Amino acid sequence: MADLKLTDVGKTYGGTVEVLKHIDLDIEAGELIVFVGPSGCGKSTLLRMIAGLEKITAGTLDIAGQRVNDVPPAQRGIAMVFQSYALYPHMTVRDNMSFALQIAKKSKAEITEAVERAARMLQLTPYLDRLPKALSGGQRQRVAIGRAIVRDPKVFLFDEPLSNLDAALRVATRIEIAQLKEQMPDRTMIYVTHDQVEAMTLATRIVVLANKGIAQVGSPLELYERPKSEFVAQFIGSPAMNLLPGEITGTGMRTTVRLAGGGTAVSDVSTSDADMGMQVNVGVRPEDCTIARQAAVYSGKVALTEALGEVTLLHFDPDEHAQEPVIAKLPGIHKGLRGETVKLSVDPAKVHLFAQGTSLLYR
Amino acid sequence: MSPILQGVLTIIIGVGGCLAYFYGSNLVLDRVVFPARNDDQGRNIRRATMVRPWLFLLPAILALGLYLVYPVVGSFIRSLYDRSGSNFVGLGNYLEMFQESGFRVAVFNNFLWILFVPAASTFFGLLVAQLTDRLSWGAIAKSLIFMPMAISFVGASLIWKFVYAGDPAIGIINAIGAYFGAAPVDPLQIPFWNNFFIMIIMVWMQTGFAMVILSAALRGIPEETIEAAIIDGANPFQLFFKIKVPQIAGTIAVVWTTITFLTLKVFDIVYTMTGGNFDTDILPSYMMDYMFRDDGRATAVAFVIMVIVTPVMIYNIRQARKDV
Ligand SMILES: Nc1ncnc2c1ncn2[C@@H]1O[C@H](COP(=O)(O)OP(=O)(O)OP(=O)(O)O)[C@@H](O)[C@H]1O
Ligand SMILES: [Mg+2]
Question: What is the distance in angstroms between the Cα of A71 and the nearest Cα belonging to chain B?
Fold first, then answer.
């Protein structure tokens, strides 16, 4: 129903503290966009600029084709769900949800209709006459979501809506949000989170923010399979991708890299003759590693194993060549590997190559 | 003995006495009364724990009993005797008093005071707190408004005596009047309204108090609820009256009632401004009229004041507790 267009958006606090710059982003109507990034990278700031709670100090923001830089929040057609719920503590659930409509001077019947429909959607009907303090955390967050729905906004903004909930409730509410999105396919949603699973499961597209700008935008699997940079590669996926330094020794449709640690990696990423001898980092996801008899990408002594049942994590001894100790994630249960020397190999299709932090795929 | 030495000695004896009492009484409890030894160890420790709070409370209870409960009872008994204090008159003092027009005027004025002063002080305090909230020079404005709090009632009254002074060369009101060619007036002699001119002094002093407390309360409102309301489309007035004020309603009630019983105790302002003349008496100043002349009557008034204050105070304490 509404598309957003951010053009060269930037934010400077107090004239000196630059938090974001050169943000260009097109969001299509009906998308669920997730902002992720390290703490303090400006996710909330960007969301609040879209909401109108924070002044946009550079660039322009258009919602549904209308320039909204100077439009007050209430007239932008947005609704926001806060991490702390931000319910009005002195009002009942019903009043919390109808406040915006009352302000907008909607008719009584219309308000009741809208509130009750939202309450049914979120299973809040039995709680309509309670005060927020008499609700559990999950119910409070649902009221906050209900308050947003009642306003019938074009764009929903969520700032870490689930991070105050416990693990089980987080999963349940996440699924509710996914269902909600399905019931309202034409509404645009922008969602800030720290949680990888939330980002991967909910998003149509993920926006990774870092270093005051956008590191990469793409569908969850695109970011996972074809990260543009080492930063994105390590940020998406858990445990983070292993990076092993090496030198290109064979080019062509397939690239061969001799690793500083002694192994040899083959990648499906193609290179040209000019790349011969280039210093690169080979990126290997822990879950793409398999145990090999010989001709390994990596071999090392297992310092620690973590058996989770469905998978087993192998933490290798710190390696003088890799920045971080290598981690492998093997399906199933593997006993007695601790202290052993293990060789790992990786499918060439899943070997990433990075030169100076950026992927060779995107040259 | 030099006064300084005397003072130091008093402090040493006082503080040392306290320490000795707390240390000694606990020692006696633990070593002699319920020693934590042998078979009874567990039971004795439990008993000692039950007694201990009372050891700490005892001095306070005694002091309060001596200086609070005894005077209340004593006053009540005194109010049942006549001026000389030797003849029992029952409720005579009260009956006589209720029939006196001066008393009725004082009661009426007192109700004006408890309606107007807390309402006006809280209102202005809230207004200032809100208006100065995000102002760069708000802190200066606030300290100026807070300053009258530091003046004594008598001092404040003297200042306002100058404000109301009849001579246009002294009183600002008459100076302004004179500028527009009006004849000098004495605001303190205008019937009925003179009460309000006196109350303004109290409002002037208490606004600072209300402002400080309410300003802290306003700061305590979660920022997100305000932002949520902004997104919901509330304008500044709706934001203030529908989101902010309800959230600090408890604090407003506490401020209101605190000022209410401050107001019920005030006597100095009226005494200094008019001495209770021109129908401006309130109960405490009315009481002072009788003090030392007819202690029976004066204690009876004191008792009426207490009866009026008590419910306000109970409400205040309840509200303050609820707020926490
Ligand atoms: N009012 C302000 N003045 C100056 N700097 C600010 C202000 N508000 C936020 N910042 C800075 O802006 C940066 C981005 O803050 P923001 O809250 O957007 O981070 P975030 O990505 O949401 O972090 P988190 O994941 O921890 O919520 C931070 O470095 C913060 O210190
Ligand atoms: Mg944030």
Answer: 11
Looking at residue A230, the DSSP 8-state letter turns out to be: H
The closest residue, in CA terms, to atom 18 on ligand 1 is: A42
Residue among A13, A34, A53, A198 whose CB has most ligand 1 atoms within 8 A, to mutate = A13
The CA B230 to ligand 1 mean position distance, Å, reads: 20
Q: Ligand 1 in contact with A174 (CB < 6 A)?
A: no
Q: How far apart are CA A105 and CA A122, in angstroms?
A: 24
DSSP B183: P
**Preceding peptide of B184 cis, ω within 30°:** no
3-state helix, strand, coil in chain B (%, to 5): 80, 0, 20
Find residues 88-147 of chain A whose CB sits inside 8 Å of chain B: 88-91, 99-100, 103-104, 147
Residues of chain A positioned with their CB less than 8 A from the CB of B228: 80, 82, 86-88, 147
Q: Which residues contact B240 (CB under 8 A, 6 or more apart)?
A: B130
Q: Is the CB of A50 under 6 A from ligand 1?
A: no
B74 and B123 fall within a common domain: no
Lookup result for tokens 């003072």: B7
In a domain, B84, yes or no: no
Q: Sort out which chain B residues have CB atoms less than 8 A from A100's CB and list them.
A: 231-233
Q: For residue A164, name the pLDDT band (cuts at 50, 70, 90).
A: confident
State yes or no: pLDDT of B132 exceeds 60.
Answer: yes
What's the domain count of chain B?
2
Touching check for A322 and chain B: CB below 8 Å? no
**ipTM for the complex shown:** 0.86
SS3 label, residue A158? strand
- Are A46 and A209 in contact by the 8 Å Cβ rule? The answer is yes
pLDDT tens digits, one per residue of B218-233: 999 999 999 999 999 9
- Cα-based angle A303, A305, A309 (whole degrees, multiple of 5): 175
Domains along the sequence of chain A with CATH: 4-234 (3.40.50.300), 242-355 (2.40.50.140)
* CA-CA-CA-CA torsion sign (A135, A141, A142, A148): positive
- Structural domain range at position B57: 3-78
The token pair at B217 is 């309360």
How far is Cα A121 from Cα A112, in angstroms, rounded to an integer?
14
Site to substitute for ligand 1 among A9, A12, A16, A17, most atoms within 8 A of C-beta: A17
> Is residue A1's pLDDT more than 70?
no
